[in-house]
Amino acid sequence: MAHAPSAKKHIRSDAKKQARNKARKSAIATYDKKFNALLLENKIEEATAALTVCFSALDRAAKKGVMKKPTVDRKKSRLALALNKAAK
Description:
Methane Monooxygenase Hydroxylase, Chain G, domain 1; Ribosomal_bS20; RNA-binding; Small ribosomal subunit protein bS20; mainly alpha; single chain; ribosomal protein
C-alpha cells in the first residue's frame, strides 16, 4: 500500500480514470453490436447512421487516449468494409 499522500491520490485518480475508460470502451462495444445487428437485418440506411455514431465514439476514444490511433483506424476500416460488403 502506498504511504505518501500523493501516491494515495494517484491510486484514487487512477481508479476514476479506469472506470471512465471502461465505460467508454463498453459504449463503443454497444455501438458496434447495434451496427452489426442492423447489418444482419439488412437495414443499410440505419446501419449507415449507426456507423457515423460508432466512428464518432471511436475518434473520441482515440483523442482521449482510451484507445490507440492505429487500433481505432483498424476498427473503423473493418466496420466500413462490412457496410460496403452488405450494401452490395
